[in-house]
Amino acid sequence: MHYTHDPIFPENFFWGASSAAWQVEGATREGGRTQAVIDLNSQKKKPFADNSIASDHYHHYKEDVALMAECGFSSYRFSMSWSRIIPHEDRKVNPDGIAFYNNLIDELLKYNITPIITLYHYDLPCWIEKKYGGWLNRSVIEEFEYYCKICFNNFGDRVKYWLSINEQNMQIVYGDWLGVSKGCNNWFEQKWQINHIMNLCHAKAVLACHELVDGGKIGPVPGMVPIYPATCKPMDQIGAMNAEEFTEKIWNDTYVYGEYSNFVKNYWKNHNINPEIKPEDEELMKKAKIDFFGVNCYRSNVGKDAPLDLEAKEYLLNKDGKKGNLQFPINPGEFALTENPYVETTDWDWEIDPVSLRYTLRYMWDHYHLPMIITENGFGMHESIGNDGYIHDKERINFLRDNIYQVGLAIEDGCEVWGYNPWSFTDLLSTGNGMAKRYGLVYIDVTDEQLNKINDASKLSIKRIKKDSFYWYSKLIKSNGKEWGREKE
Ligand code: BG6
């Protein structure tokens, strides 16, 4: 549809932004927190900084929340650090961890900002890994359930919106990159066991939320990269559908229907993959009815047919921020990804495609008929303070404006969307490029070099500076999506 009017956003729409504990908090050895596997993983990403200080949100949370309020936020999506709440295998709850999140939640509520909390954003505690060898062990399920219950019991009186696992699909697709594959010697097969264990963790979280949080709502957070077919050649359409299955649909179907689809079961059969699935597992998965989807979406991909006689190629992501530095995958017999000549890309070769956000929302709504909250969307770029002392992030403003407009159009198209929380509020550590790849509406005055050199937050500036995008976003959200800052064609 083309519309003759600007989209209208619902009253009480959640306008906010997003973060994750391990990427924003810092203080990884303070307040009783112990190490998480992702901390060690971040230490391997030199020359970029690791996460020990990050944006030092742990010490700056009051200032950060005040800035959110100044911007006009009505929501903030963030995650809790499991090893801050339960730091050791004796399962004792850390009072300092509980106090930190209580303070953060209360500070948000003071300004009428609704917390939307992710229970798990890549940060498995090291003690779990040491005790059980990582995600492959079913004991993780009980530990995760215990942790979730602690969160619901401590914060559920004030927090009603919960997210289970961030981008489970991406953790399985990019296991090494996100530190999930530890303890595996045959990732090709074992990733499906890990995936099953994560599905059970998700299901336990859903059930516990409904049991313990009065009026609580909970959903998963798939990482959505919609797939367009490369051409109208019929087999390219099948290739694109395969790509969609293998990168996102398998996960979404399981969350909603509580069982594995014939597509994935046949794939397992053909490849001799036998994850251990007990009858009671599927019962549990079926009982765990989600209330909504969190949706992370930054870009799109293009899929095409990959006949069996093609040579396989791995997906090599651009990890250094110099354009043209990625390799599209070829999975013979399944699908290949390829370039999209119609869209520009970021320095990390991510497609800049606002329409893909509308497409994703339409796709999710058509398939599942569940409400959605956009939990991530954003523009990663190299940035530094300008000569005038400010940060003029015009590209980010354009990205946000065009993406939010598409959210509005999806709502006009009939999708039920409850909120928009772009990545990220302040700059924070990227998954692989430290502070070199910035996403924030607020600049954090610290570089990878400084973080590498001075391992002490109190000796670094870490000053917060509002970027141009902060002011632009503030106007837009205070007008509930009316002040676009330019004429929109
Ligand atoms: C999302 C993750 O997939 O993408 C975030 O949930 C991540 O944790 C974000 O930071 C952006 O990716 P990157 O690699 O640019 O940090």
Structural class: alpha/beta
Indicate how many domains the architecture comprises: 1
Radius of gyration: 21 Å
Number of helices: 16
Shape type: globular
β-sheet strand percentage: 5-15%
Q: What does the average pLDDT come to?
A: 96
Question: Any idea of the CATH class?
Answer: Alpha Beta
Enter the CATH topology name.
TIM Barrel
The CATH architecture classification is Alpha-Beta Barrel
Poorly predicted segments: none
Ligands: 6-O-phosphono-beta-D-glucopyranose
Distance between the ends: 14 Å
How many strands, which pairing sense, and closed or not: the largest β-sheet? 5 strands, parallel
The overall strand count is: 17
Describe the 3D structure.
There is one protein chain. With 489 residues, the chain is of the alpha/beta class. The protein has one domain: TIM Barrel (Alpha-Beta Barrel). Helices cover 40% and strands 13% of the residues. The strands form five sheets. It has a five-stranded parallel sheet with strand order 1-15-14-8-6. Strands 2-3-4-5 form a four-stranded parallel sheet. A four-stranded mixed sheet has the order 7-9-11-10. A hairpin with a 5-residue loop joins strand 12 and strand 13. It is globular, with a radius of gyration of 21 Å. It starts with 13 loop residues before the first strand and ends in an 11-residue tail after the last helix. Residues 20, 23, 166-167, 170, 223, 296, 376, 380, 423, 430-432, 437 line the site of 6-O-phosphono-beta-D-glucopyranose (BG6). Its EC number is 3.2.1.86. It comes from Clostridium puniceum.
